[in-house]
Automatic annotation (TrEMBL):
Keyword Transferase: yes
Protein name (record): Phosphoribosylglycinamide formyltransferase
Formyl transferase N-terminal domain mapped to chain residues: 1-181
Record's catalysed reaction(s): N(1)-(5-phospho-beta-D-ribosyl)glycinamide + (6R)-10-formyltetrahydrofolate = N(2)-formyl-N(1)-(5-phospho-beta-D-ribosyl)glycinamide + (6S)-5,6,7,8-tetrahydrofolate + H(+)
Keyword 4Fe-4S: no
């Protein structure tokens, strides 16, 4: 399966996906990395792996629709099977999602439906949570609310700072996302009537 990964920053999740895709027999290949930030550190990491990159800087476009349409035109040329949002800090509209519904994944650094949105680690700490974690979900029009594909949990440790917890969660994100992508690429999960449906393990 042909995968395009969207990033806005360091791209550590993109690197994990790229490394997984490089394993023999992995059912997906990353054919492009797209960023909304020309300064995204992940762009150099993608290029170092021979992955083609594209930058669509928001301020270069009159509005959100123009920005998304420019990306959609390039996507039409690339013709991906799957899109992985990985640290992509921009909401995508229904017009963008619809052509790819059921084929767009996102990784969010909380155990959804808890803590959608930003500052998830500090919020978990403030709430006195004893576990935290991350979620890979199908992207739908609502923010961070699509059907859940996979989750991983980590302990919240006494006196954790948000940065300490973020690092612990990021480590398991790097395991979780490739596993979730594999499920989708192999057709072992799909989105049907707004729900994630899993093929029973044989
Ligand atoms: C991290 O906070 C991660 O939890 C979330 O996006 C941020 C950047 O990730 N998914 P990455 O290193 O750019 O993949």
């Amino acid at each position: 399966k042909r995968v395009v990964v969207f990033i806005s920053g360091g791209g550590s999740n993109m690197v994990s996906l790229a490394d997984a895709c490089a394993e023999p027999g992995f059912p997906a290949e990353i054919v492009a990395v797209i960023s909304d930030k020309p300064t995204a550190g992940g762009l150099a990491k993608a290029e170092a792996r021979g992955i083609r990159t594209y930058v669509f800087e928001r301020k270069a476009y009159a509005g959100k629709a123009e920005h998304e349409n420019a990306i959609l035109e390039t996507l039409a040329d690339i013709n991906p099977d799957i899109i992985c949002l990985a640290g992509y800090m921009r909401l995508i509209s229904g017009d963008f999602i619809r052509p790819y519904e059921g084929r767009i994944l996102n990784i969010h650094p909380s155990l959804l439906p808890l803590f959608p949105g930003l500052h998830t680690h500090q919020r978990a700490i403030d709430a006195g949570m004893k576990i935290a974690g991350c979620t890979v979900h199908f992207v739908t029009e609502g923010m961070d609310e699509g059907p859940i594909v996979a989750q991983a949990a980590v302990p919240v440790i006494t006196d954790d700072t948000a940065d300490m917890l973020a690092g612990r969660v990021l480590t398991v994100e790097h395991e979780l996302y490739p596993m979730a992508l594999k499920l989708l690429a192999e057709g072992k999960v799909r989105m049907e009537r707004g729900r994630a449906e899993f093929t029973p393990a044989d």
